[in-house]
Amino acid sequence: MRPLVAVVSVGLLLTGCAFDESGQSDANDAADQDGPAPSEPPPDTAPAPEPEPDEPGDTTPAPALLYANNPTELYVVDSKTGTISLIGDFFLDGDGDGDGDGDGDGDGDDDQDQVPIRMGQLAVDQAGNLIGSTDTTLYSIDPTTAGATEIASLSIADRFRGLAFVPPGVMGPDETLLAIETFGDLFAIAPDTGVVTPLGSVAPGYWLTGDIAWVDGVGLMGTAFSQGTDQLVRIDLPDLTGEVIGDIGVQDVQGLTSPDGQLWGFVRTGDVVRLDLTSGAIIDGRTAAPNWSDAAGVLAPTP
Helix, strand, or coil here: 112? Predict the structure, then answer.
């Protein structure tokens, strides 16, 4: 997943005087001849060549932090280096200070009050806030500790397969949190109250086995099971029509995210892969230890 950098060598054509056997230049011999030196030719009056157009800018994607999880653990993947790091086990942080002891002072002096929880889906909003959901509850997640603070109970309890924010102007004037379930029903979730609004089913009817993710300039992408392997599907919004892009070639792509314009997939078996947006095929990837269940991403902070 490293960009290939082409290094172009520019050759310089060097011109100079030819030396005779005595080591002196031919120009010195010309100076010893009788008569005035020949006049200098007139300067070249041809128009200067047009400057070359600017080279296209660097199109290397900005580094991103790819958050991914299994039901009990939160990880982060550096898209530039491929480094996969465990952040920690999910736990319920009742007072929101991140230490999980519930007393609000942030000193973490009572680890026994850290209540472990199982997390289902992840999403990141435009401000970089990490959101998680279970079948019944929406959480705010601290990306440095994996501590979860309850936002609200979901008004419709369902086993959502994917969670993603779409930008303003797609489903309405504001950023919208979308969730999808196995049989292709799409929902909008109010990220502050947990109110779930059914939007309809993605036509013509896909068995959506993994996640959904918004890709800038492309749209909402998802994974669907077909013929033994997963298919990459684009979902048109707001009319909810689906289009198969192509075969991914593996099963159980459980997480999708695209914070950097590339589409990253997290396979249940532990692979982290980059997907071709025009064919669905795997471009490259690496194997990690965790069994992934979902993913979300954010651009990495500038050093």
Answer: helix
Residues in the chain: 303
* CB contact burial 85-105 (16+ within 10 A = b; e otherwise): eebbebbbbbbebbbbbbeee
Higher pLDDT, 43 or 117: 117
Collect all residues with Cβ–Cβ distance below 8 Å to 195 and sequence separation of at least 6: 155, 189
How many angstroms separate the CA atoms of 274 and 259, rounded?
12
Residue 73's CB is within 10 A of a number of other CB atoms, namely: 17
- For residue 188, name the pLDDT band (cuts at 50, 70, 90): very high
Query: Contact at 8 Å (CB) between 87 and 143?
Result: yes
Residue 85 lies in a domain: yes
Any idea what the CATH number is for the domain that residue 176 is in?
2.120.10.30
Instruction: Tell me, yes or no, whether 140 lies in a domain.
Output: yes
Q: Is 158 helix (H, G, I), strand (E, B) or coil?
A: coil
Structural domain including 238 reads 64-102+113-299
Query: Other CB atoms closer than 10 Å to residue 82's CB: what's the count?
Result: 14
Q: DSSP 3-state assignment of 149?
A: strand
Q: What is the pLDDT of residue 227?
A: 75
Please check whether residue 139 lies inside any domain of the structure: yes
The answer to whether residue 234 is domain-embedded is: yes
Confidence of residue 152 (pLDDT cuts 50, 70, 90): very high
Q: Report the number of distinct structural domains present in the chain.
A: 1
Model pLDDT, residue 92: 93
Residue with tokens 């002072």: 105
- Per-residue confidence at 96, pLDDT binned at 50, 70, 90? low
